[in-house]
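Human: Note token order:
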Amino acid sequence: MSAEVKEIIDFSDLGKIDIRVGTIEEVESVKDSKKLVKLIVDFGSFKRQILVGMQGERDDPKEILGKQALFVVNLAPKKMAGEMSEGMLFDIGYEDGITPVLAQPEKPVPAGTRAG
């Protein structure tokens, strides 16, 4: 089953989103949450703490340790379960009700490489 295509946007709207490849260096459970996992992600010239709701979606969230994935790095920071999240992980499948997988480059690229 395929979802309907969202409303048309201007091509310039894409330029507002800063999507970069990050290397996941740490994966930890968030103390006061049944769902959140804290990632420390290396983007080459900077690192970010990013919270993701993958607890329970995978047998072992640490299986993504060391992998590269796509992240939005210019979202306003948001506090969740007492921790600060400084970005968003792109995953594939959540919105369609299937177990999410990482959006990843087809081969390794330098951390911080921009998508687009």
